[in-house]
Amino acid sequence: GDSSMSILKVDSIQNTGGTTALTIDNSGSVLDKRPLFHAKQSSAQSVTNAAYNQMQIDTAVHDTHNFVDTGNNRINFTADTAGIYQVNIGTKWSDINASRVGMWVRRAGAQNTGTYIAWFEQPGASGSYLYTNYTFIHNFTATDFLAVDFYQNSGGSISTYVAGQDFGQFISGYRIG
């Protein structure tokens, strides 16, 4: 054998306090304990015309660090979870006729005042379902939260479309740095 090669055989790597940071399963795959969240909307939300409406989230599908705040319809970040995240947001609208459908992504503040970190718009939806999905990377601090404000100008209220899927109306993300 090659005397310059070392083999370390472990099932997990822990910090000095005993908390496991990594596990290695029987196939040799390394499974880290990366913070992640996935929240969804379980029932349709009526979104009024030409006004900001915060996306309602009522179910935590995955929530490793108590991110999901269904009472305030947002994802909260703490000192333990602050960092750089890949975030995914998806919406599905039912039978929409609007020239403008948008999502404004907030990390702090209140609707229409701040602090927005991303804006996504889909122009010209006409008489059909509209499904939008956006992915971005952002550095969240310990006091930040993640909320989505909807906007549409169909002339009347429209509804989101939910049929029990985990990816109809959702917010998900995981820490990458």
What does this entry look like structurally?
With 177 residues, the chain is mostly beta strands. It is 0% helix and 54% strand. The protein has no helices and 14 strands. Strands 4, 6, 7, 8, 9, 10, 11, 12 and 14 form a 9-stranded antiparallel beta sheet that branches. Strand 1 and strand 2 (20-24) form a beta hairpin. The two termini are 38 Å apart. The model has no long low-confidence stretch (mean pLDDT 88).
Secondary structure: elements and pairs:
Layout lengths: L11 E3 L5 E5 L5 E3 L3 E5 L5 E2 L5 E2 L4 E5 L4 E2 L4 E3 L6 E24 L9 E25 L4 E8 L5 E2 L10 E6 L2
Antiparallel strand pairs: 1-2, 2-3, 4-7, 4-14, 5-13, 6-12, 8-9, 9-12, 10-11, 10-12, 10-14
In short:
This protein has 177 residues and is mostly beta strands. Helices cover 0% and strands 54% of the residues.
Estimate the strand proportion.
Answer: over 45%
The residue ranges in which pLDDT falls below 50 over 5 or more consecutive positions are none
Assign an overall shape. elongated
Helix content: under 10%
The main β sheet shows up as: 9 strands, antiparallel
Q: Look at the helices and sheets and give the structural class.
A: mainly beta
Number of H/I helices: 0
Q: Distance N terminus to C terminus? A: 38 Å
Order of helices and strands: EEEEEEEEEEEEEE
Mean residue pLDDT: 88
Radius of gyration: 20 Å
Count of DSSP strands: 14
